[in-house]
Amino acid sequence: MDRESRSVVLDADPSQGSLREPIIKLLSVLRSMQFNPKSPVIRLGNLLTRIGQTNYSFDSVFSFFLPEFKPYGRVGDASLTAPEATLLDMPKIVGILNGLQSLVKYGLSSCYGGFGTNNCREKPYLPSPAGVLEYGKIDATFTGETFEGPSLIGGLDNTWVGRDYSSFTEYGEVVKDPTSQTNHVYHPLYSGVGRFFSPSVSSSGNTMVKFQYYSTVDNAGGCIGYTTDYDRLFTQIWMYCDAPNYAENEMTAVNKWVTCQFAVPNTVSDFRIVVGDRINSATGDSYFDSISIDSGADTKCVDGKVGTLDPRGETGFSRKMVDELATLLTAGRLSQEHREVIRGAYDKALSATDGLKRAQQLILTTAEFHTTNAVKSVDKMRPKVTFPPPSNRPYRAVVYMMFSGGCDSFNMLAPHTCTLGKDLYAVRMSFSNL
Question: Which of 195, 244, 279, 402 is least surrounded, with the fewest CB atoms within 10 Å of its CB?
Answer without folding.
Answer: 244
